[in-house]
């Protein structure tokens, strides 16, 4: 990892650790680490240049820092934090704009307009196509319940997730080839759970 990424990683981890993100069950530094690693993996698979990969990885590090301040619209806050930090260290302004656009593309519904944005979007929701999806999903439910006071019955929660997985699409070749098959298995598990809840 280059020096800029190393420094930025430490900066973002500190931001998350010293804020309410430290108490969040899902959107915490562990999630950021996982998104960073997924972005690296997908970026390599998509043969990104070193410069482009750096942009995606910087965006991955900052993409959820806005959760320190708010849930709703946190992507705008995250983008602002990234922009301020990178401006302060005199990072190239055209590259800063790309970092910002990557972060903003992760807003729901995701709206990437190029490969870099697609990679971050797929990395952010890579857990949908992982074997630990059900346990990750439990953490998200806990976070929503504790911090957003959004409580669901088991049936409502499973239905919400079935709808989300059916609606969601991966954008990158990696997402379609590697993550999608497991996502389909996870969707089957959810449907099975739904049929078992009375």
UniProtKB/TrEMBL annotation:
SUPFAM superfamilies, per database record: HD-domain/PDEase-like
Domain of life: Bacteria
Domain HD/PDEase: 24-138
A Pfam family the protein falls into: HD
UniProt xrefs under PANTHER family: HD PHOSPHOHYDROLASE FAMILY PROTEIN-RELATED (PTHR21174:SF0), PTHR21174
Protein's name according to its UniProt entry: Metal-dependent HD superfamily phosphohydrolase
Organism of provenance: Mesonia maritima
